[in-house]
Amino acid sequence: MLQLMGETPVPLQSLTRRRIGGSLAGVNSPSREPNSIRLTSKRLAKEVAQVFCGGWKRLWPRSWIILVACGAGMLLVVTFSDADNALVKKIRVEDEKVTSVAQFISDHADLMLAVPLSLAIWCAGVTGGRVRWRKVGLACLMAALVAGLFVNVFRATTGRPRPKAELADGFYGPHPRESSYQSFPSGHATTSTATAVVIAVAVPVTTIPCAIYAITVSWSRIQLRMHHPIDVTVGATIGLVCGLCFASAMPGSAIRLRRRSRKRKS
Q: Distance of CA 123 to CAs 117, 127, 129, 143, 263, Å?
């Protein structure tokens, strides 16, 4: 028992539990830092490290999902290649105006939108002194870049020809310098989905507009005969995984993916 100057005695065990509980709550809370902190060079380095390490530690243990998605996609291409090419013809609209709209969407998507949008969100956080928005911008940028890196590795090595190449469908192996053989998976679908997922998780009210954006970008690539439906589906899956992992590194995230816990040595 602990008694100080006539106060009501409080068990020492209870005090210990409160202290430990409070400490754990502070560590596990996604918003334990004040939301308004001035940006300095040290603070910038810390925030970049927090978002990148937090996202990567969640992504690496789940990278098997990306491998499975690509493997399943390749199997589908080998099995249903004719159906996939036929679906391109059904989705496409033979209209110059529609194609022009698709071209505009495609030209202003991918990293052409992800990078400026991420920087705009980050700058808004810097101007307003808001830690959360700075991290949202960083998560948006890192998710798009990492997802793009994953997809570029597969695109350069699988060698599936684009629909407009007018070649026999299949996998021709590594063609890192020939764009005509880089159809699988879709880079635009990957980066646009990763960007949309991070923003939707940060601001859940934008979920529907973000979903429409990602789907529209994927449609534009099919309309332009740059990708097949399987290509954009696999790309969107990669973007979804990367987006969720890096979004989970943001404070106050609507979706929280746990980091892989290390086993302690006995």
A: 10, 6, 9, 18, 39
For the whole model, what pTM was predicted?
0.83
- Distance, in Å, from the CA atom of 132 to the CA atom of 83, rounded to the nearest integer, reads 45
Long-range contacts formed by 105-109: CB under 8 A, 24+ apart:
105/216, 105/217, 105/220, 106/188, 106/217, 106/220, 106/221, 106/224, 106/226, 109/188, 109/191, 109/192, 109/217, 109/220
Taking 80 as the threshold, does the pLDDT of residue 22 lie above it? Answer: no
Q: Contact 183/230 with Cβ under 8 angstroms?
A: no
Q: Which domains does the chain have, with CATH numbers?
A: 39-247 (1.20.144)
Query: pLDDT tens, 154-202?
Result: 999 999 999 999 899 999 999 988 999 999 999 999 999 999 999 999 9
